[in-house]
Amino acid sequence: MASEPLPRRLAAILHADVVGYSGLSAADEDGTHRRLINHLQTIATLAARSQGRVVNRAGDAVLAEFASATQAVVCALEIQHQIGVVERGRPPSQRLAFRIGINLGEVIDEHGDIYGDGVNVAARLESIAEPGGVCISDAVRTAVGNKLALDCQPLGEQTLKNLAEPVRAYRVRSRSVGTPHTTGPETRPALWRWRLATLAVVIGLVGLALVWERRIDPAGQHQSDTPVQGQRRGVPAAVTSPDSAPERRTAIADEAPALAVLAFQNRTGDSKQDYFAEGISEDLIADLSKVPGLTVIARSSSFAYPGDVPAVGDVAAALNARYVVQGGVGRTVDSVQVDARLYDVSSDAQLWSDTYDVALTELFAAQARMVGGIAAALKTGSDSTGPDSEPGTADLAAYEATLQGSGIFQRFSRDDTYRSRAFFERAMALDPAYARPVGMLAWSYIFEYNNGWSPKPDQTLTRALELANQAVALDPSLAVAYFVRGLVYRERKAYLTALADAQSALDLDPNYANAHILLATILYYTGHAEEGLRLVRRASRLNPQHPSNYPFHEGQALFVLKRYPEAIDAFKDGLRQNPTSERLRVWLAAAYARAGLDSEADWEVTQVLTDDPDFSLQRVAGIFPFQDPAELQHFLAALEAAGFE
User: What's the pTM?
Assistant: First the structure.
């Protein structure tokens, strides 16, 4: 009697293998093995994140499966990106580089393992991939379709070892992230990224398990990395009153002069169209941030000024910027009019101006021309932002709903956070393939979680992660999606993964101030306070009208470095913005005590205990766990000296 056919099912199969592992191991067996183990753990983590699983490992080879081809490709690109970030600090000849092949086909499932031609094809595709690259079959390319922003290089039909039929294959990479192990010149700031890559290896080796610092109040609420209601809104006093309290401003050595894009004026006469004008200028900021050689001030700082303010020089001085862009937006039912001007305040010269009167359907092309004109006038060497200027949707209604939601959400209040979601969800319904509203909706959920507003925080955090993963799958070039995901993994204590996601956000947008803050905190908690301080100050430079958590993080790094007078100044600056912050007062008391200012420390202790009689050192010890116990003891001893018990 004929035997029963073996059970088969369809799966997306990923096969990865290290290039030249034997030679690398021969040169440094222990070090190479440790790095391999860390990379294999990264692959397992990323596979699980993409709803996949590692099926088998054999030496330096990995076999994984996924429910969909899209998930497998997203995972493969992230594997190459994250491993590339870690390995980039080493000489090219010493790097561990994986090749990855992906196929979609039938597999035999037996006792949790998978076999068959579907697996064999993936393994053979891996063998023709480039080091650090991904090679996919035609079945995968067809299944993915236009769901991802990919560059696919056709390789034609390949005759592969032990396969009866040729396989049509493609080399593939994200349009934005690129292939990490290519040997061309680096396009990112080399020094701190090399240090960061080295730190990632260190963190992986020691098994980093840190808890993110949380806002110290009886409800256990979190302090977000974005401003809350009432912080830094309106026109800062520096423009109208030069004698007002000084802003903390730190110049960054060897940095390009900064550019500030003010909120464009709504020229329609209808205040309900404000969101549209602000959205145009926000898109301009996002696109200019990706132009090599430009330092662009964050939206939350430049939008604090009226777009038609005549004293451009005063605004530039307040933002520590050399260049300022002003403009206005008008529209009719089916057309839009945009005018823009670029000023160099150092020479009081207008460098560029243009006016665009186009059909609404041509708006995105006009925005791209505007970015190219500004970049050319600034002589950045780039007259186009290329594919990064694509809006991600052809549906103008979805685009407008996203602009409306973004304008509401970025008021950063509790009510506006919830109100913004209806607009993001509407945009998602209009165009399910549009990633930007998905990423913004994810941000609204992590913001809710971080501010302690959610009645079900675990579910809120999970929802933020689901949406961030969805946004990355739709568009791997969306920086906010990686930032949100980094925040989620930070809260889940997965610091190496959070570090990689924050790095991805900065790869895509080097001017992303909050992503610099995210990286900085990980650095100074793991014994790299100097580097953390530099990144906090970089973020403050990009976002001069920053919220109170910026000086708080600066003060923490300075305290770790035992630079107490400077730490005191930073914490006091944070309290000027947020006088009710308990964590700022706690750290200020510690800095006062270390500086020998006992009466000032006693006053801060009194303020804390008046507002929170249950405050205790034991609770603080569980909130700020530095990797080095000596650093935690340094902080706790200062609190005890200040008068806390």
Answer: 0.56
